[in-house]
Specification:
The complex is a heterodimer of chains A (60) and B (541). Chain A is mainly alpha-helical and 60 residues long. Chain A has three helices and no strands. The longest helix of chain A is centred in the middle third of the chain and has 19 residues. Classes of the chains: A mainly alpha (60), B alpha+beta (541).
């Protein structure tokens, strides 16, 4: 299964707002750590190694 | 004397002494203060319904400068109902291609292919003075046909005194002061609303610490009719973002976001502005076309609204009630929606068909609309000017990904174009028994669609309407003194079916005079329609 690279999130602006709000009040270091945890949570949700590998390539 | 605060582009309502200035105070059902887009649209709407209206403006026409330049489809639909849209569309610029840049690279190009089956484009670019002029011309045509609208230029309200059930106004003119009285006083007097200050009302919200330099340039060169937007423009001194946009008369609007800590006077030096404009214009074509600076200005903006748009018999509409950032063109467009929400309600109250409390629904509905606009424009501003290192990191990641992957493009936010809000969950709407498409659910503004030989909105007009699709009503409906117009479309077009029926074969809609859907049903049920009319005008019992 390829990684989805076309728009896939309903209410994009609401999503982006929520993402930034999750970082509110955090220092840069805390934000970086939060991002790392978030990536691990999302990768676990995806599960499929091929998809994760394709996502790694897309983000390069 | 009436102070001149700004120059005018067009003299639209020159001062003339009227006999009322020499008499005891005359009572008017509606006095509108401010002859801008909102005050004029409201005056025209009321006048066309036969309700007498007086507009007072402290100048004699439209102020200098392009100001609002982007008028959205909903605004054009409203202007069409008022008989003013055609010259706007004829004069306005329609553009489809936009380019988004991030520093030196082009992130993506988009083409806003117009959606089929609407009379009007998604929006037009048109300088505000033209918008005001076309409204005044429509008012003059309406007056010829007997519409009771009067505009008094160079009439400045200097004091107001709320009484029990009416308001006394002191008005200054070139011939000295006089007094009038208003049953309802509508403040369309702009972001710095003197009436708001006279009542000692607050205007709270978020000030964005930023300065924007606007330059309107006149340029005849063969330059593409495209919207160009830069995040972190690469040319020197351009600030954090820059925008190039076309208007009629070979005028281009250029915006530079300069940041907070600037020397305003130095930044308005024409040589300094020209240096910036040269760098922008040559960045894509390599050459600087010949141009002249037409109008320049620096502004800061705020996102805020009054806590309540209604204070007794004084009602606020447009910028006097709410202000947003310019991204998304939600200032004038939302103000015109205020005017159309208020017009029919004031008309029914003054004709004795609805209680004064119906006007409270103007305030609650449009406060909700203002909140939605403030939310959208705040999000755009946060994307344009990230406030923290992390938010900048995400913003730049979105721009980088958008070059290669389409999924990131909808996240790029340089302003979401104004669309009308849907009054979900408000008490004057419902029921929804059709289970039809979401786009036309109760509370939504009617979207246009081809109907018969023309367009659906032509069938709706400016009064309560029963829209019967795929069936014919079997009996007339009348409730609470309101006799709705019946628009019957036996064979709906494909677009009309898609937007109003979905999988249903037929449907009946009740539509308010401001063309928002009240309720809808699968069959024609006169009793249900009568009850919905009662609900829409606040007479539920």
């Amino acid at each position: 299964m390829p990684v989805t690279l076309t728009p896939n999130i309903p209410d994009q602006d609401g999503f982006y707002d929520e993402l930034l709000r999750a970082h509110e009040g955090l220092s840069k270091e805390q934000s970086d750590a939060f991002n790392a945890r978030l990536i691990l949570v999302l990768c676990n949700h995806i599960g499929d190694r091929d998809v994760i590998r394709a996502a790694l390539a897309a983000a390069k | 004397m009436v102070a001149v605060r700004y120059q005018t582009t067009f003299k639209l309502y020159p001062y003339q002494q009227v006999s009322a200035q020499l008499q005891a105070p005359v009572r008017h059902p509606v006095v509108i203060v401010g002859g801008g887009p909102i005050g004029l649209a409201l005056a025209l709407d009321l006048g066309l319904k036969g309700t007498p209206v007086l507009v007072l403006d402290d100048h004699e026409g439209a102020g200098l400068g392009s100001k609002a330049i982007c008028f959205a489809k909903r605004t054009l639909d409203i202007a069409h109902r008022l008989g003013a849209a055609q010259p706007m569309v004829d004069k306005g610029v329609v553009w489809n291609v936009g380019r988004v840049f991030h520093a030196n690279s082009e992130v993506f190009e988009f083409n806003l292919l117009p959606e089929d089956g609407h009379r009007h484009p998604a929006f037009i670019n048109l300088q505000q003075p033209y918008f005001e002029r076309y409204l005044v011309e429509a008012i003059e045509r309406a007056r010829t046909n007997g519409a009771p609208i009067e505009i008094r230029g160079a009439n400045q309200v200097t004091a107001i005194d709320p009484q029990d059930g009416f308001t006394t106004l002191e008005v200054d003119t070139p011939d000295g002061p006089y007094k009038i009285e208003a049953d309802y006083l509508i403040a369309c007097d702009g972001a710095r609303s003197p009436l708001r200050d006279m009542l000692g009302l607050t205007f709270d919200g978020r000030v964005f610490e930023d300065n924007f330099l606007i330059a309107d340039v006149h340029m005849k060169a063969d330059f593409p009719t495209e919207r160009w937007f830069w995040f972190d423009p690469p040319f020197e001194g351009a600030g954090q973002s820059a925008l190039l946009h076309k208007q009629p008369d070979d005028i281009w609007r250029i915006d530079f976001q300069l940041g907070w800590d600037i020397d305003r006077k130095a930044e308005l030096d024409p040589d300094r502005i020209r240096a910036r404009v040269d760098a922008m214009l040559s960045s894509q074509t390599g050459t600087v076309p010949e141009y002249e600076l037409e109008w320049t200005s620096i502004y800061t903006f705020q996102c805020r609204r009054m806590q309540s748009f209604r204070h007794g018999n004084v009602i606020f509409a447009g910028d006097s009630a709410h202000q947003v950032s310019p991204f998304g063109a939600r200032g004038a467009n939302s103000g015109v929606q205020d005017a159309e929400n208020l017009g029919w309600k004031l008309d029914l109250v003054l004709k004795g068909l609805a209680d004064d409390s119906l006007l409270d629904s103007y305030a609650t509905e449009r406060e909700f609309g203002a909140d939605e606009n403030i939310l959208n424009s705040t999000r755009a501003t946060d994307f344009l000017t990230p406030k923290t290192e992390t938010s900048r990191l995400f913003r730049d990641a979105v721009l980088t990904l958008a070059e290669r992957h389409t999924f990131a493009r909808p996240l790029v936010n340089s302003g979401r174009l104004s669309v009308p809000c849907t009054y979900d969950g408000f008490p004057h709407f419902g029921p929804d028994e059709l289970q039809g498409p979401a786009v036309t659910r109760p509370g939504a503004a009617c979207v246009d669609a081809p109907a018969e030989d023309g367009f659906l909105l032509d069938h709706l007009g400016g009064s309560f309407t029963i829209l019967a699709l795929g069936l014919a009503p079997s009996a007339p409906v009348s409730a609470h003194g309101i006799d709705p117009v019946v628009a019957c479309i036996p064979s709906p077009s494909d677009e009309l079916t898609r937007r109003y029926l979905g999988d249903a074969k037929q449907g009946v809609y009740l539509i308010r005079p401001d063309q928002h859907v009240v309720a809808r049903w699968p069959d024609f049920d006169p009793d249900a329609i009568a009850r919905a009319i009662g609900r829409a005008i606040g007479k539920d019992s």
